[in-house]
Structure of Transcriptional regulator with XRE-family HTH domain:
Amino acid sequence: MSDPSFGALLRGWRDRLDPADAGYARSARSRAPGLRREELAELAGLSVEYVLRLEQGRATNPSGQVVSAVARALRLTTAERDQLFRAAGLLPPRDRTVGTHVPPSVRRLVGRLGDLPIGVFAADWSLLWWNDMWTALHGDPSGLPPAERNLARALFGTGAGRWHLRPVSSAAGPYAFETAIVADLREAVARYPADPGLAALVDGLRTVSPFFGELWAAADMAQLTGDLKTISHPELGDVTLDCDVLTVPGADLRIVTYTAAPATSGADQLERMRTSRFSEAR
C-alpha cells in the first residue's frame, strides 16, 4: 500500500476481505466490496465509532490488545499483523511457538510441481510435507517418528532420523550444509524464544553432538538459501542437483526444491525417478 498509516492499512485490508470468509452471508443487494465497518467492529469486539476513528486517524494510540483483535478479525498474515503493529507505534508480538501449519495455498502450489522433489519445512527444520519425488530422492520419511523428521536431528542427532538421511555433500565445501542449518536454528531461537520444543531440540543436540555445539558457538554464520548438492542414491549412484530454499512470507516455512539443468546427468536421473514413481503408482 502506498499509504503506510494505520488507518490506511485498516481500510485497505477491510476492503480486501470477502465477507463470506469472515462468516457473513452475501447480501442480495449490491454492496461495496469487502467487510463492512460494522462487521469488523463486531468481529474485533470494538464499537463502530472506534473503528471509524481508527480509520480516520483520530484514535492514534490503539493498545496491543486492540491491534491484535483487529488483525485476527481481518485474517492478516504474520507479516501483515507486524506491519499493523508498527503502524500503531508498537513492537510486533513475538510468536511463542514454531508454526507447523502448511496453508492450503502452499499445498496447492507445491502440489503443482509434482515432477520435482519438494519438501516443506518449519522454522526448526521439521519436515511437514513432501511429495513422491522427495521420497524417490531421499527415501520415505513416513516410517520415521514425527520428531525424527527433522533435518537438524538427522545431521547431528543419534536417533532414527540420522540413519535415514542419505549422504549429502555440498558444492559450497565441507560442513557448509551443517553450518547453514545451525545458523537457521539460531535465527529461529531468536524469533521463538519461548518455544519449549525448539529449546529442547537445541539443548538435546548440544548434549549429544560436540560438533553442533561448536557450530552453535560460532559467529557470522550464513543461513541456508541455495546450493549444488550431491545425494548418494542407493540405485542411481551420486545425483547432483541444484537445491533452492524458498521462504513463505507470513508463515515462516521453507520450501526446498531440487532441479537440474536440461541435458545433464542430474536431469536424466530425475527423469528416471519420475518414471519409476509412475510405474509404481500404476
Observations:
- The CA atoms of residues 60 and 116 lie 50 Å apart.
